[in-house]
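pls read this protein.

:::
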Amino acid sequence: MSSGGVRVLIRRATLADVESIAAIEIRSFSNPWHPLTFSSLVSEGRAHVLVAEGPDAQVVGYAVVWWVLEQGELANLAVAEGLRGKGVGSALLDRALADAKANDVESLFLEVRFSNDPAIHLYRSRGFTQVAVRRDYYRSPREDARVLLKEL
């Protein structure tokens, strides 16, 4: 897939990808998940972990989705700093949505910081709507979260 001049391949993550995923996570979030969390999710299959692989075979983004029966959650999505706004996040989100739907997920939730306008724009462009607010959901800095939902 070509994303604004960036060619990416979306695929399932392997344990070999965890170091790259964790590096993107640390640069993207003020309270990053621990690398062992990603290792556990990938190795135990408790989540659907996707990576975007650039033309040089480097991981340039990732998404974490899990579901139980017909309900799912997009738990995490991040793109390497230099490639944000170039369609990598869109490609990851589109694949996550397609995979969830293929597994009979009917609704997908997510939380996003109130101040994260680029992410909110992306999610709304894919049909997510705000259904709730979680007060003081984020730390460092403290901020409310929008709870978004997409019916698949």
